[in-house]
Fold:
Amino acid sequence: RLTILSSDAQSSWGLLPDFVICDELSHWEKPDLWYSLISSAAKKPNCMLVVLTNAGVGRGWQWEVREAAQKSSRWYFSSLDGCQAKWISQNWLEEQREMLPGAVFDRLWNNRWQLSDGSFISLQEAEACRDESLKSQEQGRRGVRYFAAIDFAEKHDFTVGVLIHWEGEQLVVDRMDVIQPRPDQPVQVAWVEEWIERISTAFGNVCFVVDEYQLLSTIQKFESRVEIERFAFGAGKGNHALAINLRQLILRQGIRWYAGCGQLNDVAERNDLETELTSVMLRQNASGRCRIDHLSDGVHHDDRVFALGVAALKACESGCVADWMEVSEGGLV
Structure:
């Protein structure tokens, strides 16, 4: 009899199996099901337990299982290095290498376990998207469709409002407004609502993307007057999509912005979108999803990058995508 278990660990306790297959262990978020299955396998002396998985990230419980099996004489351990699928061409692999962060490519295609997460992009790659002919815009143009995103933080992080549009096959940043909270002066939701009012009036055809949890009252206030899309800023799936999409746009110079875009006011040193892009990291979780993150030291931030990523993802999902988002013979590129 073959029994296929769901990820519900509670229903797996008490089994007496003869043969157990654990598929993609590196993507299991919690160890409870593993604890249940390996202890069940130990109850029958002739039970065989097989673990099939690709490389993971970090030094969590999945890594500890891998290392224990590798060192134990009671286990057969085998790991294949590099792409073993003969039907995948070298050209396709090179294309994947160009589009994925190094750490992600190494894990997915070379099957190498990653100690930690990779950096997002270099300063040179960020500066290549700067267009000296552009400047921050105050008014919109007739017939242009705009996309805006707002990342709101009351006390510790920046609050960012960014506006972009398609110009041919490139996205262009029209403006990026950043407000920094003070110890005795948190950012008010009123700033967000005033920004929506001002941008809507000045630019006309704007789709606003807003956090459906932090700014629910603002959404309810404006959704009958302006076009508002809800986005779960804290959701893993959405964060993965925006991180990969933004990185690809930057590497292929599919997005442009003006000099000093996102620069903080009242700060002498350079602290703009480009410097933030080079300071953030691309983290992977156990399931292989990526997200943009920053050092939690009170100095580094990721709010400008995240807001731009949300707006860019919405723009790309709206149908005006560039050639690099089309489906080729090798798949989605």
Q: What stands out?
A: Confidence is low (pLDDT under 50) at residues 321-333.
